[in-house]
Amino acid sequence: MQMAPAKLEYIWLDGYQPIQSLRSKTKIERNFSGKLEDCPMWCFDGSSTEQAPGGSSDCLLKPVFLAKDPQRRDGYLVMCEVLSPDGTAHPSNGRALIEDDDNDFWFGFEQEYFLWNPETEKPIGFPEGGFPKPQGPYYCSVGANNAFGRAMVEEHLDACLDAGLNIEGINAEVATGQWEFQVFAKGAKEAGDQVWVARYLLERIGEKYGIAINWHCKPLGNLDWNGSGMHANFSNSLLRTCGSSEIYVKVCEAFRPVVQEHIEVYGPDNHLRLTGKHETAAIHEFKFGVSDRGASIRIPIGTVERGWKGWLEDRRPNSAADPYKVAARIVKTVKSAEAQLEKLAEANVA
């Protein structure tokens, strides 16, 4: 029996700075097997996406993650890495920076965002010519006075679940029109893939409602409203099994000398969000603590209750950060801590 033609939506990140945007286009494949390995390489005009000059404009799309497209008949979502014409990773390709080939690192990203009225340039729920009540009643709220945009958020949740993404929950956030979804995956690369596909679905659903997604970490400026983060919960075999508070401290301390390297990939304008207020640590300081939401890195109480077997939460990445680059930097720092621990163990044996 002849199969219906499949609509493959190839999705990639452009070369715009400081925030890369999602791009996509549709490829029709007849007799498609439904498997990632049968998604062909494709190309696009990089001169239109800040990724190539006009005289040599082809960039390659390498499929790396496949999900069902819940909103198109016979559709699939194909997340891609961008390659240069010679097959090497393009400079805009943050996924290629991740050193986690054995998928030992697990990530859970908490993605905050604002539902944004493109006509008023304010979050939905803001009255014309003024401001709503101060923040406080909106977090995990219910009711038309406090919760805005629920129909769109629920549609996004269903779409993510129908696509097979490992979305773990949603909630209204602290500010008016602000929401959050959480995604978890075993493997740093797949965690990034799933966040980007979830972002793509949210943006596309917003077209139907006439609502834009504002990913900026502080879209209301210096007003007394919470910013948006993308807290990164992470673990590897060491953190999941060590059973040692001393090892957790050493891993956390490995982040201290590389504060700047982390901030560089934790999203633009983070100085507006990481002020030491609104449940943040100041941008250039570093501190960690158990159950401390004002720390750079929080040690969850669940980790302690499990006998120091669990995970850590880096609270500094902001809502516009690239999860690929965030994961790559965290993996690098944790691996440096592991290397130091191994040297100490060898020295003690000697």
Show the helix and strand layout.
Blueprint lengths: L5 E8 L8 E8 L12 E4 L12 E11 L6 E9 L22 E12 L4 E2 L26 H14 L3 E6 L5 E9 L1 H22 L2 E3 L15 E6 L1 H5 L3 H9 L5 H5 L24 E3 L6 E3 L1 H5 L6 E3 L8 H27 L1
Parallel strand pairs: 1-5, 12-13
Antiparallel strand pairs: 1-2, 3-4, 4-5, 6-7, 6-9, 6-10, 6-11, 8-9, 11-14, 13-14
Order of helices and strands: EEEEEEEHEEHEEHHHEEHEH
Tell me the radius of gyration. 21 Å
- Amino-to-carboxy terminus distance: 68 Å
Helix content: 10-25%
Given helix and strand content, the structural type is alpha+beta
CATH-assigned fold name of the largest domain: Creatine Kinase, Chain A, domain 2
Named at the architecture level, the CATH assignment of the largest domain is 2-Layer Sandwich
Relevant CATH superfamily of the largest domain: Glutamine synthetase/guanido kinase, catalytic domain
How would the global form be characterised? globular
Give an overview of the whole structure.
It comes from Puia dinghuensis. Belongs to the glutamine synthetase family. With about 350 residues, the protein is of the alpha+beta class. About 25% of the residues lie in helices and about 25% in strands. Strands 6, 7, 8, 9, 10, 11, 12, 13 and 14 form a nine-stranded mixed β-sheet that branches. Helix 1 crosses helix 2 (about 190-210), helix 2 (about 190-210) runs antiparallel to helix 7 and helix 4 packs across helix 7 (about 325-350).
